[in-house]
């Protein structure tokens, strides 16, 4: 019996081992040889167990055998209990609570506003592929939680959830294509539909993408934004990651603006008839009288202007047009100065346009205050970086038909350096007692009464760098300021709010000393601390032995 | 209880009166510290110039640095774990002190729990080493408390589960090297199996030519195998916790895993008594 048992056990093992090898050879779990070897191994295994049990039961006086059987049975029972416990918890408590800031936080300002102001029914359909792995389940769960949160703000948002494997026809129903393995949301309102793929990288639906798509499907029209060219302006087609403005184009398009460039015809400048907002983005040449008159006529028929004006030097002897025009027509005074923060006064920093080096390690960061009541900055609570800015202030008494407000201010420890000649020649700045100190106005917004259906609006900001690609990528406040300005100019106050990604992380700047300290502390510091403790313990033991 | 604490104290002091504990902590500290330095400074660089790295904006601190770093530290515990557990029971048998231990007025649970608690103490020290590094990170960036707390908890639970497995395997043999290699092999094998199982199709395509009852049986067995193979590896259960999501199922998994292997260790010890 024992010999038979041993042979059965041995052959069973050999057969099962052969089965595993055959699986690899045939690459098919159900190939005939695999099935055969598995069947033989399983049958012989059962035979072995039966013979072992019979042998054990026969040798009742052999306590070792009985104890061995008891141990095996007890272990299997305990394993069963463990498996049942785990399976029960998996079934009953198969959910997780996202305790992070992202999981606990409310929806953004802007998202809530858009949802609360929905006047049409919107369908939000979550299409996903459930693969059974934890990452995919997590993505599905987070997306569902997000949509359920959105539903709390608007009864007009209707949600549905489909696994495309179980419901393959749903892709045809919504004429959608799965572009991401992490799933997608289809937003539909009337005839308009937008698809938001869930990022394969982050496995998360970005709230910003959802809100932008929602705006797009509910918005009746697309405001047309023209960026003026022909005066060496910063182009929205410039994709330079540091100094380009292509980011503005992407953001505006995502918020359903239509973006284009326009160059005035020489001698007969006209703002296009379909233009809603004309943006003049840091021209390096002055704008001539004819062009300014075209802009004036544009404003008088309800048009909107946005000027972003960097510090510049008009050559000696040349008559300036733009700044005097803004002052005389609308009471907006753009300073011939640079706002300097006292912390950085000893360091030089100027626009590379003037051929002087920019001290990249010491950006001039003006973090100021905002006009609490103006729609553009009402409730604005983020830092804005506006390096190398000039003042923009309103006349104490504005021309008739013009109303306005200064909306952005520098910090108190700043002043407006007016001695630009010294700055350019010797790269020095010195505070003079007659120079104005902060807080200094850096931007102003005015409305102009017109005969048209709507008023004209103008915003002037004494800086264009805040809208460069590198700053809008790293400073959410910058892009929010720009887009809020555009929203006010296009009268889409729904769009004014804080646009943030799911996480609002700030860049981490470390000095060399800090980097060295981190490297030392985390590598050598810990090891030396451990070694020190060891030495102390050893010495103490020797002392008290 | 007194017996358990006596065994625990003895085991704990054996880590720190010999160079072993310091070497393990030192090696763990160097590796986690180097990983921390490289990944944190790399994150800082990417956050300052996201456009240069083709990123849409400042990368998420928790997702790109904190969670992966904590998971790496947990993973490292699984590599170092065999060094900690291989000597627990095997050395007693090799030196011949196992029989002596069994004759003391100590219950099996005192011995098992005492040794296990000592390893948990060492594990806690390793987790504190990781926490020290994260304190440095918190000085420069807002660290998500949920990710930090649940991430470190996941490292501890994962290590505790793995140490219970190592304790069981150490109890089976008198050779430390065998115990260490088998422990490592068991974990690594389950990890590979889990990865392969995730790549397996949800159902078998070749069932078409089988009879229906056989098809159902084969399908059921395959499904069960796939599900079990995906659940067994220790490290995937830490992922959700390391992302700051409190998932009871993962915590229960680690507790159940530890309980099972501690139970098996009891069985091995008791079998030694009646085999002696």
Give a description of the structure.
- The complex is a heterodimer of chains A (545) and B (276).
- Chain A has 545 residues and is of the alpha/beta class.
- Chain A is 40% helix and 16% strand.
- Chain A is built from 15 helices and 17 strands.
- Chain A has helices at residues 2-26, 32-58, 63-92, 101-104, 109-116, 134-151, 170-173, 207-218, 246-254, 289-300, 322-330, 420-426, 469-474, 476-489, 512-544, and strands spanning 97-98, 122-128, 157-163, 184-189, 192-197, 224-229, 258-263, 277-281, 304-308, 332-334, 338-341, 369-370, 392-394, 402-409, 414-417, 441-448, 456-461.
- In chain A, strands 7-6-8-9-17-16-14-12 form an eight-stranded mixed sheet. In chain A, strands 3-2-4-5 form a four-stranded mixed sheet, with helices on one face. A two-stranded antiparallel sheet of chain A has the order 10-13.
- In chain A, strand 4 (184-189) and strand 5 form a beta hairpin.
- Chain A is elongated and about 115 Å long.
- Chain A starts with a helix and ends with a helix.
- Chain B has 276 residues and is mainly alpha-helical.
- In chain B, helix 2 (19-48) runs antiparallel to helix 3 (61-85) and helix 6 (108-140) runs antiparallel to helix 11.
- The model of chain B has no long low-confidence stretch (mean pLDDT 84).
- The interface between A and B is large, with 66 and 75 residues.
- Strand 1 (97-98) of chain A pairs antiparallel with strand 1 of chain B.
């Amino acid at each position: 019996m024992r010999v038979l048992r041993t042979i059965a056990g041995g052959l069973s093992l050999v057969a099962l081992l052969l089965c595993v090898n055959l699986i690899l050879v045939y690459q098919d779990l159900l190939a005939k040889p695999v099935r055969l070897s598995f069947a033989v191994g399983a049958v012989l295994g059962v035979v072995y167990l039966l013979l072992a049990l019979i042998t054990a039961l026969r040798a009742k006086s052999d306590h070792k055998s009985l104890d061995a059987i008891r141990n095996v049975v007890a272990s299997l029972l305990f394993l069963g209990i463990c498996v049942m416990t785990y399976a029960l918890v998996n079934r009953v408590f198969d959910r997780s609570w996202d305790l992070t800031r992202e999981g606990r936080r409310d929806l953004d300002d802007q998202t809530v506003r858009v949802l609360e102001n929905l006047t049409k029914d919107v369908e939000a359909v979550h299409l996903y592929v459930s693969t059974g792995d934890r990452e995919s389940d997590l993505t599905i769960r987070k997306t569902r939680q997000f949509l359920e949160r959105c539903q709390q703000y608007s009864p007009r948002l209707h949600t549905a959830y489909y696994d495309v494997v179980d419901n393959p026809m749903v892709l045809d129903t919504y004429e959608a294509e799965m572009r991401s393995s992490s799933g997608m949301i289809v937003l539909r309102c009337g005839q308009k539909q937008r698809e938001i793929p869930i990022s394969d990288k982050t496995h998360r639906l970005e709230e910003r993408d959802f809100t932008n798509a929602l705006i797009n499907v509910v918005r009746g029209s697309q405001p047309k934004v023209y960026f003026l060219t022909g005066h060496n302006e910063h182009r929205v087609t410039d994709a330079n990651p540091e100094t380009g403005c292509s980011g503005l184009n992407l953001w505006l398009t995502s918020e359903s603006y239509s973006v284009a460039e326009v160059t005035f015809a020489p001698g007969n400048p006209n703002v296009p008839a379909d233009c809603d907002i004309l943006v003049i983005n840091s021209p390096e040449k002055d704008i001539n009288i004819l062009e300014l008159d075209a802009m004036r006529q544009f404003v008088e028929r309800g048009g909107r202007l946005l000027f972003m004006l960097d510090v510049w030097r008009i050559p000696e002897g040349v008559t300036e047009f733009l700044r005097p025009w803004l002052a005389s027509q609308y009471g907006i005074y753009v300073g011939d100065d640079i706002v300097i923060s006292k912390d950085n006064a000893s360091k030089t920093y100027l626009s590379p346009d003037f051929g002087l080096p920019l001290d990249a390690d010491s950006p001039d960061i003006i973090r100021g205050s905002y006009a609490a009541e103006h729609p553009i900055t009402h409730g604005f609570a983020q830092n804005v970086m506006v390096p190398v800015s000039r003042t923009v202030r309103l006349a104490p008494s504005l021309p008739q038909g013009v109303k306005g407000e200064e909306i952005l201010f520098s910090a108190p420890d700043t002043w407006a350096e007016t001695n630009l000649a010294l700055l350019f020649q010797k790269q020095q700045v010195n505070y003079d007692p007659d120079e104005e100190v902060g807080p200094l106005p850096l931007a102003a917004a005015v409305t102009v009464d017109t005969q048209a259906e709507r008023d004209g609006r103008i915003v002037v900001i004494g800086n264009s760098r805040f809208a460069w690609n590198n700053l809008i990528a790293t400073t959410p406040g910058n892009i929010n300021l720009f887009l809020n300005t555009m929203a006010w100019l296009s009268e889409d106050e729904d769009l004014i709010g804080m646009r943030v990604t799911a996480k609002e992380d700030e860049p981490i700047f470390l000095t060399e000393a800090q980097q060295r300290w981190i490297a030392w502390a985390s590598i050598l510091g810990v090891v030396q601390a451990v070694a020190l403790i060891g030495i102390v313990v050893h010495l103490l033991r020797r002392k008290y032995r | 209880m007194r017996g358990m604490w006596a065994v625990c104290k003895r085991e704990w002091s054996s880590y720190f009166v010999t160079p072993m504990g310091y070497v393990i902590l030192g090696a763990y500290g160097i590796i986690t510290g180097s990983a921390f330095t490289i990944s944190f400074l790399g994150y800082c660089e990417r956050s300052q110039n996201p456009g240069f790295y083709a990123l849409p904006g400042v990368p998420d601190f928790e997702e790109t640095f904190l969670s992966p770093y904590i998971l790496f530290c947990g993973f490292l515990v699984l590599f170092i774990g065999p060094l900690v557990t291989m000597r627990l029971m095997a050395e007693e048998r090799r030196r011949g002190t196992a029989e002596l231990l069994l004759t003391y007025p100590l219950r099996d649970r005192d011995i098992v729990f005492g040794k296990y608690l000592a390893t948990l103490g060492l594990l806690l020290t390793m987790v504190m080493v990781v926490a020290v590094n994260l304190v440095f990170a918190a000085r420069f960036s807002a660290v998500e408390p949920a990710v930090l707390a649940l991430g470190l908890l996941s490292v501890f639970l994962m290590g505790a589960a793995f140490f219970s497995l190592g304790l069981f395997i150490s109890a089976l043999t008198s050779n430390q090297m065998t115990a260490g290699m088998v422990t490592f092999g068991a974990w690594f094998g389950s990890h590979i199996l889990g990865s392969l199982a995730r790549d397996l199709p949800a159902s078998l395509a070749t069932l078409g030519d089988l009879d229906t009852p056989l098809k159902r049986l084969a399908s059921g067995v395959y499904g069960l195998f796939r599900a079990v193979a995906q659940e067994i590896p220790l490290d995937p259960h830490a992922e959700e916790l390391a992302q700051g999501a409190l998932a009871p199922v993962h915590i229960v998994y680690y507790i159940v895993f530890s309980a099972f292997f501690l139970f098996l260790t009891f069985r091995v010890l008791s079998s030694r008594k009646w085999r002696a």
